[in-house]
Amino acid sequence: MEYDAVDRKIKSFTIIELVIIIAVIGILASFAIPSFIRLKEDAYRKKELLTVDSIRKGIWIWWQQHGKKWPSQLDDAHNGECSKNNPFFTYVLEKPVVEGWRKKDFEYRCILGKGGKTYVYNPQTGKFEEKE
User: Within 10 Å of residue 4's Cβ, how many Cβ atoms?
Assistant: First the structure.
């Protein structure tokens, strides 16, 4: 019986083919990763806007239920970051905010993601608006 080298040849990828596959995967990843980062920041911004909208509606409901008077404050929370022990917006939200916000007097800053904004509550007008 003779040894036949052609029959025993193992079929596999060459190094060049493997390098090309890795390069293609790298190129695809370079497009996908920034998209995922933008999606996360967009989600943080939308969560912030929904929270602000809920706070504004809660202030309006308070005004209607309390003889057309604006709340003198939005919560009894201490200055600093909100938490389960220091929830924010307890007077105007049924479910208070316990993460992602920081308070200093009547100023509230959203600290979700990179682009959070600062909002100021005015108890004379009942407005909760973005700080300029």
Answer: 8
Q: CA 91, CA 118: separation in Å to the nearest integer?
A: 19
Shortest CA distance to 130 belongs to which of 115, 113, 112, 108?
108
* Integer Cα distance of 108 and 128 in angstroms: 9
Residue-wise pLDDT for 109-125, tens only, equals 999 877 789 999 999 99
Cβ–Cβ under 8 Å, residues 80 and 107: no
Q: Would you kindly state where each structural domain of the chain is located, as residue ranges?
A: 15-130
Cα distances (angstroms) measured from residue 103 to each of 14, 23, 47, 68, 118: 60, 48, 17, 26, 9
Nearest to 71 by CA among 50, 55, 95, 94: 55
pTM comes to 0.73
